[in-house]
C-alpha cells in the first residue's frame, strides 16, 4: 500500500517530468527570437519569410550577416537597393556541394552579388548600363559584373555562367525592390575557376542532413521511452 507521502512524491515526480518533457519538445522546435527592427525600415528577411520558398537565401543572408548590413543601409539610404532573391528550388538545382565548397568570404560575395546598390524599378532596367554594379567585391569596375538586357517586359540577367529572367516582383516600395529569380546568379569569379573540377563530396550534405534527422528522431524516441519507463517504475513503487 502506498503511503500519502509516497503518493505526493509520485505526483511531484510526474509533474516535474511532464513539464520537463514539454520544455524539451517546445525548445527544440522554436527558432531564436529575431532582433527588434526600427519601425519604417523594411526587413528583407521578414519580407522573404512571408513570401515563402526563400529559406535557403534567408539562411545565407543571416549567416553572412548581410541581413544586418542591409537593415542598417536601408535605414540610411537615398539610392535604395534592389535584390535578386533566388528561390529554394534555385539553390537546390546548384551542383551538389557547390555552396559547401565556398569559404566564408565567397559566401558573403555570393550573397552581395544578388544586391544592387540602387533601387531599380522593373521598368527602368533598360536604362541600366552594362555591367551593372553589384555589392560584391570592392565595387571596382568589372569586378563581379552582372549584365542586364531587356526585351519588352522581360528582364534578363547574365553573369557569364548564369542566364535567367527576373521571374517576378516580391516587394517594392520606391526605395527597395526585391525580385524573384529562378536561378542562383553565379559570379564567374567564384564559380568559373573550379567549374570543371568535380564538386567535393557530392551528395554528402544531403546524407549528413538525413543522418542528423534520423539521430534526432532516435533521441526523441529514447527520451520518450525513458520517460515512460520512469512513470511505470514510479507507479509500481507507489503500489
Ligand atoms: C536608423 O536611423 C536612425 C536615425 O538616423 C538611427 O537612430 C538608428 O540607430 C538607425 N537604425 C539602424 C538599425 O541602423
Ligand atoms: C557584359 O557587358 C559588357 C559590356 O557590354 C560586355 O563587354 C561583356 O562581355 C558582357 N558580359 C556578359 C557575361 O554578358
Ligand atoms: C578552386 O579550387 C582550388 C583547389 O582545387 C582552391 O584552392 C581554390 O580556392 C578554388 N577557387 C575558388 C574560386 O573556389
UniProtKB/TrEMBL annotation:
Q: Pinpoint the FAS1 domain residues.
A: 41-185
The protein's matches in Gene3D superfamilies, at most eight in alphabetical order, are given as:
FAS1 domain
Q: How does it sit in the bilayer?
A: Lipid-anchor; GPI-anchor
Q: Which SMART domains match?
A: FAS1 (SM00554)
Name the major location: membrane
Q: Which keywords annotate this record?
A: Cell membrane, Glycoprotein, GPI-anchor, Lipoprotein, Membrane, Proteoglycan, Signal, Transmembrane, Transmembrane helix
Location within or outside the cell:
Cell membrane
Q: Which residues cross the membrane?
A: 217-237
| Signal sequence, start to end | 1-29
Q: Which Pfam families match?
A: Fasciclin (PF02469)
Quote the InterPro entries the UniProt record gives: FAS1_dom_sf, FAS1_domain, FLA_A
Give the family, as the similarity comment puts it.
Belongs to the fasciclin-like AGP family.
The UniProt entry, under PANTHER family, shows: FASCICLIN-LIKE ARABINOGALACTAN PROTEIN (PTHR32077), FASCICLIN-LIKE ARABINOGALACTAN PROTEIN 12 (PTHR32077:SF59)
Report the protein's function.
May be a cell surface adhesion protein.
What is this protein's record name? Answer: FAS1 domain-containing protein
Starting at the broadest rank, the lineage of the source organism is: Eukaryota, Viridiplantae, Streptophyta, Embryophyta, Tracheophyta
Amino acid at each position: 500500500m502506498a503511503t500519502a507521502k509516497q503518493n505526493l512524491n509520485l505526483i511531484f515526480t510526474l509533474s516535474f517530468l511532464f513539464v520537463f518533457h514539454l520544455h524539451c519538445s517546445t525548445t527544440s522546435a522554436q527558432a531564436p527570437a529575431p532582433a527588434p527592427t526600427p519601425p519604417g525600415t523594411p526587413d528583407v528577411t521578414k519580407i522573404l519569410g512571408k513570401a515563402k520558398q526563400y529559406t535557403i537565401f534567408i539562411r545565407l543572408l543571416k549567416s553572412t550577416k548581410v541581413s544586418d548590413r542591409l537593415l542598417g543601409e536601408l535605414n540610411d539610404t537615398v539610392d535604395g537597393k534592389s535584390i535578386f532573391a533566388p528561390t529554394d528550388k534555385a539553390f537546390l538545382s546548384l551542383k551538389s556541394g557547390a555552396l559547401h565548397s565556398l569559404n566564408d568570404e565567397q559566401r558573403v560575395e555570393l550573397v552581395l552579388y544578388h544586391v544592387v546598390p540602387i533601387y531599380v524599378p522593373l521598368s527602368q532596367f533598360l536604362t541600366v548600363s552594362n555591367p551593372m554594379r553589384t555589392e560584391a567585391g570592392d565595387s571596382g569596375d568589372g569586378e563581379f559584373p552582372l549584365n542586364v538586357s531587356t526585351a519588352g517586359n522581360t528582364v534578363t540577367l547574365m553573369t557569364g555562367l548564369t542566364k535567367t529572367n527576373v521571374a517576378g516582383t516580391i516587394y517594392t516600395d520606391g526605395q527597395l525592390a526585391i525580385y524573384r529569380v529562378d536561378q542562383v546568379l553565379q559570379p564567374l569569379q567564384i564559380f568559373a575557376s573550379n567549374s570543371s573540377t568535380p564538386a567535393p563530396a557530392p551528395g554528402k550534405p544531403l546524407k549528413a542532413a538525413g543522418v542528423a534527422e534520423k539521430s534526432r528522431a532516435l533521441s526523441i524516441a529514447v527520451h520518450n521511452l525513458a520517460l515512460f519507463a520512469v512513470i511505470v517504475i514510479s507507479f509500481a513503487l507507489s503500489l
